[in-house]
Amino acid sequence: xxxxxxxxxxxxxxxxxxxxxxxxxxxxxxxxGSGGDGGPPTINLYYPPEQNLQKVVDDxxxxxxxRYRISYRVLPRxxxxxxxxxxxxxxxxxxxxxxxxxxxxxxxxxxxxxxxxEWTGQDKAEAEQGTLPGPLDxxxxxxxxxxxxxxxxxxxxxxxxxxxxxxxxxxxxxISAAQRLKEQDKPYRVLTxxxxxxxxxxxxxxxxxxxxxxxxxxxxxxxxxxxxxxRALEQLKTFATSGVTSPSFSNAxxxxxxxxxxxxxxxxxxxxxFVYPAMQEASPELAKDVKWARVPGxxxxxxxxxxxxxxxxxxSTYSKHPREAFEAARCLRDAEHQKFSAVNDGVPPxxxxxxDDPEMTEAYPMKETILEELKEPAVRPLTPAYQSIxxxxxxxxxxxxxxxxxxxxxxxxxxxADALESKGVLP
Length: 427
What we know:
- This protein is of the alpha/beta class and 427 residues long.
- It has 19 helices and eleven strands.
- It has helices at residues 12-21, 26-29, 53-64, 79-91, 107-112, 121-128, 133-138, 171-183, 198-210, 227-240, 254-262, 275-282, 284-287, 322-332, 335-345, 359-363, 367-375, 386-397, 405-420; strands spanning 42-47, 69-74, 99-103, 140-141, 144-145, 148-154, 156-160, 190-191, 268-271, 290-293, 308-315.
- It has a five-stranded mixed beta sheet.
- Strand 4 (140-141) and strand 5 (144-145) form a beta hairpin.
- The longest helix is centred in the C-terminal third of the chain and has 16 residues, at 405-420.
């Protein structure tokens, strides 16, 4: 549910080195070949754990009517481990991989490495039809489509309506409201992710985009770090030193944040929608008082831009069955299956019309707020070097209380520029 983490543009020498490093994997991978027994081809789907995805796979297999069979190969739960597995196999030109479930921050990296195929013709038309622009942006590289968005995700502000009558419009308003609650000896904390990992980069990216800032140039080739990004650093520092965060803020990740809020430890929470069903089950009495709103912005008259996550479906360059793989990917992310996954697995759809389906109302009472944010989203820097950039950004931003806005902006600018020039692969 959370979006987590992806890397430098691949040069031929780097790809060759990565392939050498991955040779040890080649022998075991031979067992995962797709359809070498003369029967219908097997389309291997490498995808993160999703509880009810096998039902979608089964339905697509029924629709294929024996022309091919999709086999769901479950990736590790952690995003970094997912990426390592796929990078190593693709570097070894493993032909047993067909359809890949990529974190939205990996598409450009995999495309630049020539590990995934461009979507063209009818495949491209179907992938783009009715799909929200923000998720589509994450699936493109150099103005070409290299993946089809399967689901997206976006954080919301969750707040205690028994403690505050209206949700704050800005972070400063939220901080002030929390400080007043603190003075009244009421639950007051503003809980969100501040550990040195992708969650901190997501928080900062939301603040920077909400302030109108640019981390990279429009073409993704130059570090900018303009005045808006400095203002976002000021806001993050103010928040971290305001006395309203959790004592564990600089080590906080998604699920502990959820648990602390769920146990009554906060008045506000900025987190992904997975917290809603968990709260209904674990703390139903508290859940009655919890409402949601758009994540606060920087200026009261300017709506926030909230960083999106999600998974894109790509077809491996090394697949022996690309035609069937593209067809399988289209089926897995069509409107009906996006609705099924949204209702049953809590992953917001990328096809806008799915939000209008009556079945979505019960599963997503907050769907209008989610869609509102998705229509004006913040997208993380689009570059093949994102993995490197995210790593250096999280290190420089941590701990947020130690930020010196102008100095930190200079450090980020230099480190991001170096990451963009990196010749190495982060496996």
